[in-house]
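Quick illustration for those who missed Monday's session on complexes.
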Amino acid sequence: MSRKNQTLGEFIIENQSSFKYTSGELSRLINSIRLAAKVVNHEVNKAGLVDIIGAAGDTNVQGEDQQKLDVYANTKFIQTMTKRNIVCGIASEEEDDFISINSQDENHQNKYVVLIDPLDGSSNIDVNVSVGTIFSIYRRVTPVGTPVTIDDFLQKGNQQVAAGYIIYGTSTMIVYTTGDGVNGFTLNPAIGTFYLSHPDMQFPKDGKIYSVNEGNYIHFPQGIKNYIKYCQMEEGDRPYTSRYIGSLVSDFHRNMIKGGIYMYPKSSKNSNGKLRLLYECNPMAFLAEQANGKASDGFNRIMDIEPTELHQRVPFICGSKNMVEKAEEFMKKA
Ligand code: AHG
Ligand code: MN
Ligand code: MN
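Prediction with manganese (II) ion bound:
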């Protein structure tokens, strides 16, 4: 039985047997993410002290400026998972193509691929605002022992075996699911140990927070505009309050605890919105559903979308179930 104050290490061992494929491989993988999280956390924490902030000069495949910490986090997560020899492939928001990991050990039977947004909310780094890391884990669909292919990565979100995020906030936390609810662990930085602090996290069914970049309002579809006006209307428990950090991880985390909805709709500028299906939306959708919430593109369940490319974007509406359903209702009516 999980209990508060249990360490993440203990929790992983204790829950390993309840996972349907019990080879221990997934546990080792989560352990390596835990390790990389601590290393990246250390670096994020001193971002204000050392000259690591600022653009590294590169732009990523999405055409956005890469901050130095993006590069650092990307390298650390990839290195940790590669060196420990526990995954067969990695795809990252910061890499053009997926990475196939050819183990030195020819008997290697690694079954999992990881998709990662190494540093989410990176525009917040140099202003000392919370950022995060998002990960998504699948079993490969091609035969073990052979190099991975694109098919191993272009799986629907409903095939995920685990997903989670790390939030580098006022405290650093790992929040993850293996399909059996959502648990949150807080880092004690003095001793470098994560403790179970938020067992069985749940989205309240209703909420009073809406999170959307309203600066884009005029470019939003009519259904979203109408829903935003509904949120602002004085009636019943409304008007709702608006909160937008600009880090998906942080906005999601707050809304899961307090009740709320996050929206990154399509707009007349971005026909599919901004967020990436594989690195951001699917893992957050899996967490949302496991926590009794909901994730939609306005019409369809996020996790049922058939991916066609690695860096695909998709409109994203996610959070408390009743709020997401209300927003969908407005989308359908418009
Ligand atoms: P990333 O830093 O990985 O590129 O992701 C940023 C994402 C997401 O975290 C955030 O909610 C959203 O972009 C903010 O976008 P706007 O600045 O357009 O609101
Ligand atoms: Mn991101
Ligand atoms: Mn990112």
